[in-house]
Specification:
- With 231 residues, this protein is of the alpha/beta class.
- The protein has 2 domains: 1-30; 33-227, SGNH hydrolase (Rossmann fold, 3-Layer(aba) Sandwich), CATH 3.40.50.1110.
- The protein is 47% helix and 10% strand.
- The chain contains 8 helices and 7 strands.
- It has a 5-stranded parallel sheet.
- Helix 2 (47-59) crosses helix 8, helix 3 (76-87) packs parallel to helix 5 (128-143) and helix 5 runs parallel beside helix 6.
- The protein is globular, with a radius of gyration of 20 Å.
- The relative contact order is 0.14.
């Protein structure tokens, strides 16, 4: 191998190593090392929250340690099963949370897999009455932490999406709002933000573009900063 070839190989290997390290560093599921001088924030939610975890963390860099469970938090039923595990033993200053899209989605019989709304035997994973009861229990548990709570309501189900009915987010948000009013939990109205900024969301899909997730993160930070402990 000639010297130019050797040098080129070294450069390529270094670039690859840097890319691998960056990819590992940028995984929203990876645990972070706390700065003991900063407050601790916990984001709880499904794939929407996974999508905005990194930009939220970046925007709050130097202001808060932003954590999340190392999983998709799914429907309220999963929340009830795992909430103690997700909260852990540490102190939380702010908990920003949502459940909804996995509750209102339609699944096949004897399965938790998303299916067409009109498929034989299709039903919502968690009916709205059960959702409201589950959410009530979850809020009671979250309040025991002493953290400031922020409910982030459920984002829209756009036309053409598979497995969810357009408008069901509104119904589930109304049920959630009753719970939040009962426990005096502030509400971040992400649903309205998305309806007013439809380009943030992918077409016929409940998920968002990369720029959309950044926009959602910006709305998160506005709310979270209101409740961070004052220095």
């Amino acid at each position: 191998m000639t010297r130019p070839q050797w040098m080129f190989t070294i450069v390529l290997l270094a670039a690859a190593a840097t890319m691998v390290a960056a990819a590992k560093k940028e995984n929203p599921m990876s645990p972070i090392k706390d700065d003991p001088n900063l407050p601790r924030v916990l984001l709880i939610g499904d794939s929407i929250s996974i999508g905005y975890t990194l930009p939220t963390r970046h925007l709050l860099a130097g202001k808060a340690n932003v954590h999340r469970p190392r999983t998709n938090c799914g429907p309220t039923t999963r929340g009830l099963e795992h909430i103690d595990e997700w909260l852990g033993d540490g102190h939380w200053d702010v908990i920003h949370f949502n459940w909804g899209l996995h509750d209102l989605k339609y699944i096949a019989p004897d399965s938790d897999k998303l299916t067409r709304v009109d498929a034989p035997g299709a039903h919502q994973q968690v009916p709205i009455d059960e959702y409201e009861k589950n959410l009530d229990k979850l809020v009671q548990r979250l309040k025991k932490t002493g953290a400031k709570l922020i409910w982030r309501n459920t984002t829209p189900c756009p036309p053409g999406n598979v497995g969810r009915v357009v408008g069901d987010s509104v119904k589930y948000n109304q049920a959630a709002l009753r719970v939040m009013k009962k426990y005096d939990v502030p509400v971040q109205d992400m649903y309205t933000f998305v309806m007013e900024h439809p380009d943030t969301q992918r077409k016929a899909n409940v998920h968002f573009t990369s720029e959309g997730y950044k926009a959602l993160a910006e709305t998160n930070v506005v709310e979270i900063e209101k409740y961070l402990p004052k220095k």
